[in-house]
Sequence to fold (1176 residues):
Amino acid sequence: MKYFPKDKKALMMAALGRIPSDLAITNANIVNTFTGEIYKANVFIYDGFIAHVETEDFENINAKEIVDAKGSFLTPGFIDAHVHIESSMMIPRNFAKAVLPHGTTMVITDPHEIANVYGIRAVEYMNAQTKDLPMKMYIDIPSCVPSVPGLENSGASFVAEDIKTMLSLSNVIGLAEVMDFIGVMNADKRMMDILKVFEEDGRYIQGHAPGLIGRGLSSYRIGGPTTCHESRKSWEVKPKMRTGMYVDARSSSISKNINEIVKGLDGIKFYDRLTFCTDDREVDEIIENGHMNDVLREATRCGLDVITAIKSCTLNAAQAAKLENIGAIAPGYVADMLIIPSLEDLKPSHVFTDGKLVAKDGILLANIPSIDFDLEKDLSVNAPDFTVENFRLKAPKANKVKVNILEYGSLNLSSTVLSQLELPVKDGYVDISGDDSLQFAAIINRYGNGTYTVGIVKNFSKIDVAWGSTVSHDSHNISITYKNPEDALAVYNHFKQNGGGQALAENGQIIASLNLNVGGLMSNKPVDELSKEVKAMKKALKDCGVDLTNPLLRIVTLALPVIPDVKYSDMGLIDVIKQEFIPIFVED
Amino acid sequence: MKYFPKDKKALMMAALGRIPSDLAITNANIVNTFTGEIYKANVFIYDGFIAHVETEDFENINAKEIVDAKGSFLTPGFIDAHVHIESSMMIPRNFAKAVLPHGTTMVITDPHEIANVYGIRAVEYMNAQTKDLPMKMYIDIPSCVPSVPGLENSGASFVAEDIKTMLSLSNVIGLAEVMDFIGVMNADKRMMDILKVFEEDGRYIQGHAPGLIGRGLSSYRIGGPTTCHESRKSWEVKPKMRTGMYVDARSSSISKNINEIVKGLDGIKFYDRLTFCTDDREVDEIIENGHMNDVLREATRCGLDVITAIKSCTLNAAQAAKLENIGAIAPGYVADMLIIPSLEDLKPSHVFTDGKLVAKDGILLANIPSIDFDLEKDLSVNAPDFTVENFRLKAPKANKVKVNILEYGSLNLSSTVLSQLELPVKDGYVDISGDDSLQFAAIINRYGNGTYTVGIVKNFSKIDVAWGSTVSHDSHNISITYKNPEDALAVYNHFKQNGGGQALAENGQIIASLNLNVGGLMSNKPVDELSKEVKAMKKALKDCGVDLTNPLLRIVTLALPVIPDVKYSDMGLIDVIKQEFIPIFVED
Fold:
């Protein structure tokens, strides 16, 4: 896609200096993403585009307004190559308010989460949210709704025809992370049909291929995806880049992959295929640490040269998304730019989008008016009436039973293993009271299907209170971990009444909650208010004994059936690699 | 543009090793154009595409045929980013025979020369020539026919509507070098209309901007062109690359710019915007020295790292032309590849296109059948009957006259300067017999217009015989330099009878000639035969005293009105910079 100025001839006349530019940024040290040089220049902007970059004549400044960069660096605006805005718990318009002051001027968002709740209507809602925003917010159409068909039930199911209808939405630029990498690799019909829509249309296809190398990666690449933000280990980096895949280095609130990826770049000569993303970042982390600038800081701390990091986060990201004239400070390019006093702390003093100053010294200047959306008024939880009985795990035998359980390894990773334990039976139900490392896990469909699973999880939060969430990747059913079925029921009923979010219950009573009124995933409250509520919820979790980094984004991985080895869904316990169900009870 | 396999699923199954590949190239040292690494691998090819690159398991080779690379390097096929095939004097099918053994597997050709002779019909002819070729021969539609409207008459004149009709030709991928850089820079309507067709269509636009930097370059870039093969001086390189322009380093038979461009890269960190081209290379030079491999050798001799050179000549060139999956050895990429025993001499032992071995050890293996074309039977010279009188320069005054003349500086450059000389008049005609550095120059329209110019040229060939050519960029009118009008008439009449080419005449008789029967530009004779004739013509020129490198391509610059400072056309003497006529005689 190319950005077109309203009046190209006028822009050319501004380049020639025959008519005044709207703005001149003088005395800047340009970071040139084409050549990797830094040099002194005055930059002229007209009608939202860069008209000219002057490196010789610093005297003649034919512009209506001048901003003196005072020797600071001038870089293109930063691009988040892959983000689920829902994970910030902010609605997109509020998300824009939060990230712009940090210098993120473009995000490519995958509304996969809310699409699993509300289907096509959700994607239309997310697209409508971008209206008149002072930043570029593009949408990749969710490719895998649900993520693993046949193994989970979500609120929607997209086939190729559905995806075709969404192509006409104004801000759609690609197909979002193709998570069903096994399906693609094997050339399964459902995924091939979806990929074909995009191949014929010419827009790009985002990938998702954790740990995939060798022949499987070759097949996946031929299938169509051109990017991957799921590289966690240094050994994945080169095999992916060698295939021409963009390795999209991620620093989310729960997956910090930058260090491993920078390690994996060792011995590589060209960096054209490196980009950066946040994937999932919480509101409080964005406000306190920053956004893409924080990711780049991390990359440079890990040893990546800052100019390469900036190129990756600007020009490379634009190229990966097939955007032609953005991501560089050059004539004819969109004037999304940052004045950055220090390339070490990467905090922009000025943020320009389309040539307009939208944030200064960390403060948003642009006005982002609220819009009234019907979808935000809906109650997203549609689940049956349950009793305590529904949350108990009935044993098939009288004394002892052998149970397949989902075991977390490292507390800060979403990958898990399958383990088996022999557990006592009390009054006909499995008894986990004797083992502090165990909790029950219930996954309950919230889209009217009536399906639900109760199983056991090991080494998760290890707390006694019930903890529930309607944020629960990728189907966003209700996930609850608990020791006591009464507490689980309290959480469940809370969601049925309040429409979702997160909640804690003890002795059958709610003791803390975070209300996410938009699809049970986001809140339309003002950013600061939401941030406070999120912090309060985190504190409540900590007080209960949840000693995890970014705890809110932990419970959401319990039912994430695209991350190996095992996960729960509303339909049962899933072997992620084999893509099949594992019985809760091991038969003798 | 993306290349699609006939059966994507089958290609994926070959990648997975579930069905046999057509070909395996084993024991190769891959030059990876994404990462810049060289590493050992077996490459599997299926249905013309690379299915898989295996770097671990060297034992299991599930393929119908195996080629052992014996540790040689394996690179993508070389791409000539900009060439006028007409300048080789070979018709395209013969050109393919000549360049393939040297490893050039793709050329992007601008049929600008023959288009100036035959218009749309010529572009259709060039497109039809590409039928079933075992190499990729793409066409950029000539943008400037004629190059400088109003200042010359050629055989055709393209406006936006004409160009639109050619977009549907099978092998058209872009708009060819936009030579009217002054017109673009000033946003003149004719050029803006043509550029708009391509902007809306999405195909790329080749530039041509000799010495253009600063504000003019900014305006030109905004206008649309994304490449430039006209950088002659090191100081042009960075300003162009900084704008994101692809600097297309040229080594033609007459313009050797590689050394200056490599010098100009000093201090640049990223090389994404570097490509290579030949522009104009003669048949005998191609046969003796090579093609793109010769250009790359030159680049490495000048100090460019060979991996960067190879990337520039493959992946970068493909990207510049918006070709998605070619230019790399990676799954899903087109299997155009070279086995190269030495990265110093860069002579491929094996050339594969679409996975098939098409040349080996410098010998073409692929069959390229001849096709009968009506256009090749036409006589391209349509000019009036002239007498000796037409070739004399009548003086406006009796004794002495002051004349504006075109003066060559370096004999090996096509740039010129304007100078003025006071010359004697004899019998009413300007007399140049007393100055060995002077010759007459006649440019005669050969498309039925009846227009012609006679002027004086200084420091050109300095020979006494008449030398004429119907190859005469860009309008390809008849150019003749001479001392003696009788000799000029002999050359002229020879072309009228034989349809063009080059010829020498002395004492009113033709003493040597090269017949170019296709549009007066190319010959459809077999490559070896043509090469011999070209050499014979060069020898005849040398015997006459023309001491120039690549003499055949010298006379063709006499009427090239896009190269400063001054040139002749059939309409007069032209100030190239001001785009206006200069009178032959200086008024007192």
User: Anything to note?
Assistant: Chain B touches chain A through 60 residues (CB under 8 Å). Chain B has a mean pLDDT of 95. The radius of gyration of chain B is 25 Å. The longest helix of chain B spans residues 527-544.
